[in-house]
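call fold(seq) -> tokens
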Amino acid sequence: MGHRARHPAADRHRHRHLDDHGWTVTFTLPPGHTITGSWNGAVTVSGRTVTFRNAAHNGTLAPGAATTSPGFQAARPAGDTALPSGYACA
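ret:
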């Protein structure tokens, strides 16, 4: 069992032009959960903290623009329905 999520990172940046720095989304996985795959971004994990950064092709965004739907898949222990939390966008 697992879960998957899509993160429209640009939605949180409607008034910012992301040309030089790209975008970053961070969040916390519940205990025992692991990232098993991702798309349209680069994922790093330190402990339970996940950092999801833009890919080379979707780091430049004009105000109001959308990304190419970055997302991830995660595995979780049987019977555990907890979801990631503490989402922050920069």
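Residues 2-89 form a domain with the Immunoglobulin-like fold (CATH 2.60.40.290).
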